[in-house]
C-alpha cells in the first residue's frame, strides 16, 4: 500500500488549488506559463478556423471535416510521440514540435491575408498543427515528472486544468471578438505572436535525456505498451469512458450554426459558448484543493462523466425548445440574439466543462500514480490519442447526425448515450468501481 505524503495531505486540506509546483520548480513554472499564454492563441485559431470554413462553405459538415482529416494523423502522432518521449531528449522534441506548430499557424495567417478561399489548404494546415500539438502534449506530460517531485504531481494536474481553462476561456472569446472586428488574418497573426511564449518556456528547460534502458521507437516498443495496457483494467477503463464522453458529448462543431440560426449573435455567440465550458473547467480547477482527499477515484470519474452527459443532454433539450421558433427570429448581431437562451446554454456548457475537468484530474492522477515510469511515455501516448482523438470522433458524429437531422439531435441523443453507457460499463467493471487512491493499481 502506498503511504500518503505529509506535504500532499496538507495541500489537499484547503479549498483552493495548491500552487506549490510553481514555487518549488522554476522550470515547471516557466513551462506552465508559456503553455498557457501560447494556448490562448492556439484556441483562438481553433475557433477562427471553424468560423472561417463555415464562412466559406456555410456547412456544419465542412467544419466537422477539420477533425475528421486530422484524426488518423493525430492517433499516429500520439502513439509515436510517446515512444519518442521514452527514447530521446524531451526538450529537443518539444522544440522541433513547436517549430512545426508555429510554422503552420504562420501559414494559416498567410492564407487569410492573401484572401485564399480554397478550403483544402485550411484542412492541411490544421492537420499539421494538430499533429505537432499532439506530440508536444504527449512529451510535455513525460517532462513534468522529471522536473517535479512525485507528491506534487496531483497539484500539477490541477494547475494544468487552470491553464487549459484560461486557454479555452480567453482564446475563444478573443477569437469571436477579433473575427467579428478585425478579421481572420489578424486573429491568426496574434496566435503566431503569442506562440513565442511557448518557445521561451521550452528553451528554459534543462536537457532531458532518457534514463535507464531505452527502447528504440518502433513496433516492438509500441506492442509492449499495448501489452501492458491489456493487463491494466483500471487505466483502460478510464480511457474507454473518456472516449464515450468525447465522442457523444462534443457539440462544438454545431456552434457556428447555433450562433447563426438558433441563438443568434454570430461569431460572438460562438466565442461565448466555447468559453463557457472553459469557465466551468477553470472554476473546478481553482477550487480543486479538496479533490486530493478523494480516495475512490474510479467512482469519481464515472460520476463526473455521467454529470457531463446530463449537462450535454440539457443543452440538446434547450436547442430543441429554441428551434421551435416560439421565441421569435434571431439575427447575426449580438443585439438581435436570444440573450436568455445564450445565458442558459452557457450555464449548461459551463457545468459540462466543470464535470469534464474533474474527471480529467482524476484520470491524470490515476495514470501518473498507477503506471510505472518505464511505461509512462507510451501510456501517455495512448492517453493523448484518447483526449485529442476522442473530440475528433465527436466532431464526425455531430456533423453526420446534424447533416441528416436537426441541430438539437446530436447533443440530446449523445448526452443520453453517455449516461447509459458509462453507468453500464462501470457497473460491470468491479476493480474500476473500487479503485482506491491509497492502493493504486493499473
How does this model look, in words?
The chain has 442 residues and is mainly alpha-helical. The protein has one domain (22-209, 216-433): MFS general substrate transporter like domains (Growth Hormone, Chain: A), CATH 1.20.1250.20. Helices cover 78% and strands 0% of the residues. It is built from 18 helices and no strands. The protein has helices at 6-12, 20-24, 26-57, 60-87, 90-114, 120-147, 153-181, 184-194, 196-203, 219-230, 233-248, 255-262, 266-286, 297-322, 339-370, 373-404, 409-428, 430-433. Helix 4 runs antiparallel to helix 16 and helix 13 packs across helix 15. Residues 1-12 have low confidence and may be disordered.
Nutshell version of this structure?
This protein has 442 residues and is mostly helical.
CATH fold category name: Growth Hormone, Chain: A
Instruction: Give the mean pLDDT.
Output: 81
CATH architecture: Up-down Bundle
- Globally, the shape reads globular
The CATH class:
Mainly Alpha
Transmembrane segments: 31-55, 61-80, 92-116, 122-143, 155-180, 186-206, 261-284, 305-327, 339-362, 382-402, 408-426
Protein name: MFS transporter
Subcellular location: Cell inner membrane
Domain Major facilitator superfamily (MFS) profile: 190-442
Amino acid at each position: 500500500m502506498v503511504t500518503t505524503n505529509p506535504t500532499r495531505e496538507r495541500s489537499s486540506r484547503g479549498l483552493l488549488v495548491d500552487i506549490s509546483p510553481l514555487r518549488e520548480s522554476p522550470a515547471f513554472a516557466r513551462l506552465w506559463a508559456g503553455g498557457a499564454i501560447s494556448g490562448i492563441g492556439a484556441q483562438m485559431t481553433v475557433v477562427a478556423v471553424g468560423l472561417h470554413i463555415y464562412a466559406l462553405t456555410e456547412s456544419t459538415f465542412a467544419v466537422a471535416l477539420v477533425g475528421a482529416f486530422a484524426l488518423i494523423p493525430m492517433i499516429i502522432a500520439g502513439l509515436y510521440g510517446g515512444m519518442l518521449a521514452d527514447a530521446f531528449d524531451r526538450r529537443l522534441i518539444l522544440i522541433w514540435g513547436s517549430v512545426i506548430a508555429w510554422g503552420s499557424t504562420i501559414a494559416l495567417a498567410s492564407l487569410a491575408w492573401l484572401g485564399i478561399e480554397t478550403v483544402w489548404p485550411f484542412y492541411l494546415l490544421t492537420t499539421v498543427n494538430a499533429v505537432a500539438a499532439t506530440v508536444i502534449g504527449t512529451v510535455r506530460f513525460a517532462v513534468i515528472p522529471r522536473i517535479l517531485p512525485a507528491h506534487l504531481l496531483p497539484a500539477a494536474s490541477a494547475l494544468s486544468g487552470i491553464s487549459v481553462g484560461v486557454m479555452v476561456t480567453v482564446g475563444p472569446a478573443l477569437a469571436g471578438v477579433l473575427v467579428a472586428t478585425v478579421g481572420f488574418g489578424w486573429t491568426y497573426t496574434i496566435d503566431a505572436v503569442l506562440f513565442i511564449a511557448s518557445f521561451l518556456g521550452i528553451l528554459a528547460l534543462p536537457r532531458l535525456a532518457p534514463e535507464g534502458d531505452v527502447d528504440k521507437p518502433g513496433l516492438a516498443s509500441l506492442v509492449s505498451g499495448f501489452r501492458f495496457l491489456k493487463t491494466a483494467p483500471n487505466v483502460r477503463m478510464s480511457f474507454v469512458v473518456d472516449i464515450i464522453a468525447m465522442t457523444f458529448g462534443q457539440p462544438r462543431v454545431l456552434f457556428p450554426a447555433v450562433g447563426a440560426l438558433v441563438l443568434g449573435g454570430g461569431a460572438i455567440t460562438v466565442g461565448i459558448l466555447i468559453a463557457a465550458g472553459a469557465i466551468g473547467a477553470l472554476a473546478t480547477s481553482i477550487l480543486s484543493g479538496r479533490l486530493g482527499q478523494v480516495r475512490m477515484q474510479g467512482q469519481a470519474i464515472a460520476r463526473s462523466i455521467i454529470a457531463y452527459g446530463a449537462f450535454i443532454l440539457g443543452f440538446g433539450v434547450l436547442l430543441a425548445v429554441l428551434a421551435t421558433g416560439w421565441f421569435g427570429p434571431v439575427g447575426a448581431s449580438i443585439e438581435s440574439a436570444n440573450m436568455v437562451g445564450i445565458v442558459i446554454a452557457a450555464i449548461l456548457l459551463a457545468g459540462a466543462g466543470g464535470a469534464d475537468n474533474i474527471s480529467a484530474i482524476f484520470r491524470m492522477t490515476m495514470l501518473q500514480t498507477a503506471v510505472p515510469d518505464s511505461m509512462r511515455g507510451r501510456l501517455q501516448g495512448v492517453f493523448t490519442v484518447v483526449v485529442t482523438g476522442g473530440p475528433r470522433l465527436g466532431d464526425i458524429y455531430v456533423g453526420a447526425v446534424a447533416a441528416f437531422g436537426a441541430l438539437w439531435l446530436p447533443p440530446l441523443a449523445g448526452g443520453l448515450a453517455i449516461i447509459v453507457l458509462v453507468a453500464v460499463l462501470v457497473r460491470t467493471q468491479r476493480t474500476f468501481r473500487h479503485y482506491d487512491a491509497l492502493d493504486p493499481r493499473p
